[in-house]
Amino acid sequence: MELNVIGAKSLSVSDEVFGGEYKKALVHQVVTAYQAGGRAGTKAQLSRGEMSGTTKKFKKQKGGGARHGDYRAPIFVGGGVTFAAKPRSFEQKVNRKAYRVAIRSIIAELCRQDRLKVVSELSMEAPSTKGMIAKLAELEVKGRVLLVSEDSTEALYLSARNIPYIHVVDVLALNPVSLVGSDYVVMTVDAVKKVEEWLA
User: What is the CATH number assigned to the segment(s) 2-14+92-199?
Assistant: First the structure.
């Protein structure tokens, strides 16, 4: 299939990568797994056995009062937690092949909806927020925009840093959450070739 390149000739790309069907269930699974992998999982609570304080029986067994051991029990205010949360990993296993199929599916859907813009190059000579705003206006993109370059320069990153909802990544940092959450994705020709090579 052919992709329109803004300001240059069209680019011939693989139908398998840029024209496949949209697999909604797989995309959902991969996006959820990616977000889960980013969770810290550092929540920690103290169980009854980890609480500080005496274990002495605080009342006699008979003659009034509850028959109880100590104040560290979960039923008392300030006592331990019944099922105390401990640091854990939220990672979900996703096969490499399934991950690539999901990325292919997302990119193909972006192409169908005309939300993928391809440009010959994406660079800034010097950091300039005003210049970046003008460039985005030329491309006719708005909302949440993801700029994908083969190798993002510091000037490009600094130019986009102060504009809300504009993110710059290189091909190696491309992920399903960024793609799904963007209204438009702008890629350079070199980035498209690299993505095609990765997903073929």
Answer: 3.40.1370.10
